[in-house]
Design goal:
32% of the residues lie in helices and 25% in strands. By secondary structure, the protein is of the alpha+beta class. It has a 6-stranded antiparallel β-barrel with strand order 9-10-11-12-13-14. A hairpin with a 2-residue loop joins strand 10 and strand 11. Helix 5 packs across helix 10, helix 11 packs antiparallel against helix 12 and helix 12 packs parallel to helix 13. The chain starts with 7 loop residues before the first helix and ends with a strand. Monomer. It comes from Sinorhizobium garamanticum. It catalyses: DNA(n) + a 2'-deoxyribonucleoside 5'-triphosphate = DNA(n+1) + diphosphate. InterPro entries: DNA/RNA_pol_sf, DNA_pol_Y-fam_little_finger, SulA_CellDiv_inhibitor, UmuC.
Length: 471
């Protein structure tokens, strides 16, 4: 058992990472040791990242114990950079979290000073002055490279700033100078946000937290109107909306709602979340209330303005879209499906069902051609062909009789065969060929059977299957 993480008090006592737990208890008998749980730590860090959305939507994870926040254009909303840092640290302290925060012009400089320095806000002109007294490990170098630098006497970053660059590159590699330039702000280091940045958003910060669902929906309607104005200015409609609820104790709830057609109508956007809140009612714990609500458009599309004709009859897709939105918001985006065709020779692969995500595309789609859906096949087939025992002429004759589901059928008339070759690029070259027959028994019932395999031509044994029944 070894120590993998320490708080500030444990570091002051003299404990080190990697130290044995028994030795640590000998040095500090009152030591409180908690078993490491990487999965729980990751979930907790992601929860903090959600909580940081109150400051900026650009939040990136930094390893196991850090976060990067791109606050460009956001600091003035919180009273400036110094006020923002104080607000972050004070709120985290009230939540029982010990944290360090640094604002600078580069991610590398903030990372270095937060872990090895003491400043809170660093001006761009003070970057080298803040880096100089820090150890070389603050440059996010591999442990071997940092140890080699210390071995040759380059223990602080200030020693590297004065050294020639060419010998450093030959001795320690190009990564050393890249990290050094990133920390100084000479090389850009873009951040990758953990969540997509919304195209449009509207936010309300409340003096009194909200707990009642009706109050949340009323505020969501006002936010929908603000988002509508932004969508109209850009000529777009939202397809995927997200309502962000930040609780007083820091827990964050994200509720997403899909739209079957592009929307920029405030009432319909609010109606989506009315259905979603009813669906997630049991999982939405308001606690002491929500202090921040934000409505975002995660995906939008071009929405051309449309005008009703003089008859006053609305577009036929609108009632269906409203119906689809209500059902998908209540039961999930996959509750409604529609039939689709696929490019495949095998009947069970030639069709399927897809989620109804775009009502206008389904209504305006072209009719299916006769070749794609021939009349000599049943409208519905079995998902899995059922094995039957059949008697037929060899090698290519139609069945004379067959036994299916413990019932014997005698064939009066038959048509075929319709030969369908195997899809070798999916099933392999050894997959057998199929010969389909349309048969009718002596009582007028019609069936769709196929023989799998060819006599004398394929290695696999010949078998008969029932694939569908005609109405």
């Amino acid at each position: 058992m070894r120590l993998v993480a320490l708080d500030t008090l444990a570091e002051r006592v003299g404990l080190k990472r990697g130290q044995g737990a028994a030795d640590a208890r000998a040095m500090c008998p009152s030591l409180d040791v908690i078993i490491d749980d990487p999965a729980a730590d990751r979930a907790f860090l992601e929860g903090l990242a959600d909580w940081c959305d109150r400051y900026t939507p650009l939040v990136a994870l930094d390893g196991k114990d850090g976060l990067f926040l791109d606050i460009t254009g956001c600091a003035h909303l919180h009273g400036g950079e110094r006020a923002l840092v104080d607000d972050v640290l004070s709120r985290l302290f009230l939540l029982g979290i010990e944290a360090r925060a640094v604002i600078s012009s580069s991610a590398g400089l903030s990372w270095a000073v937060a872990r090895y320095g003491s400043a809170a806000v660093i001006a761009p002109d003070d970057a080298e002055r803040a880096l100089a007294p820090l150890p070389v490990a603050a440059l996010r170098l591999p442990a071997e490279t940092a140890a080699l630098l210390e071995r040759v006497g380059l223990k602080e970053i200030g020693d590297l700033l004065q050294a020639p660059r060419a010998p450093l590159t030959r001795r320690f590699g190009s990564l050393l100078l890249l990290r050094l330039d990133q920390a100084r702000g000479h090389v850009d280091e873009p951040l990758s946000p953990r969540l997509p940045v919304p195209s449009f958003s509207a936010e309300r910060r409340l003096a009194e937290p909200l707990q009642e669902e009706e109050h949340i929906l009323e505020l969501a309607r006002h936010l929908s109107n603000d988002v509508r104005l932004s969508l109209e200015r850009h000529g777009e409609g939202g397809r995927l909306f997200e309502l962000l609820l930040i609780r007083v104790d820091g827990r964050v709830f994200r509720i997403q709602a899909h739209a079957a057609v592009p929307l920029n109508d405030a009432d319909r956007i609010a109606a989506l979340f009315r259905e979603r809140l009813q669906a997630v009612h049991d999982d939405l714990d308001a606690g002491y209330g929500f202090e921040i609500l934000r409505l975002s458009v995660l995906r939008s599309e071009r929405l051309d303005p449309a005008q009703q004709d003089f008859s006053g009859v609305p577009d036929e897709s609108q009632p269906l879209a409203v119906f689809a939105d209500k059902l998908c918001a209540r039961f999930g985006p996959d509750c409604l499906t529609f039939a689709t065709l696929a490019e495949s020779h095998l009947p069970e692969r030639a069709g399927g069902f897809a989620p109804l995500t775009d009502v206008a595309a389904v209504i305006g789609s072209c009719p299916v051609d006769e070749k794609a859906c021939p009349e000599n096949r049943p409208l519905r087939i079995f998902t899995h062909p059922e094995l039957v025992e059949a008697t037929a002429e060899v090698p290519d004759g139609a069945p004379r009789s067959f036994n299916w589901r413990k019932t014997q059928y005698r064939v009066a008339r038959a048509e075929g065969p319709e030969r369908i070759a195997a899809e070798w690029w999916i099933d392999g070259e050894g997959y057998p060929t199929r010969d389909y027959f349309r048969v009718e028994d002596q009582e007028g019932r019609r069936f769709w059977l196929f023989r799998e395999g060819l006599y004398g031509r394929e290695i696999s044994p010949v078998r008969w299957f029932m694939h569908g029944v005609f109405a």
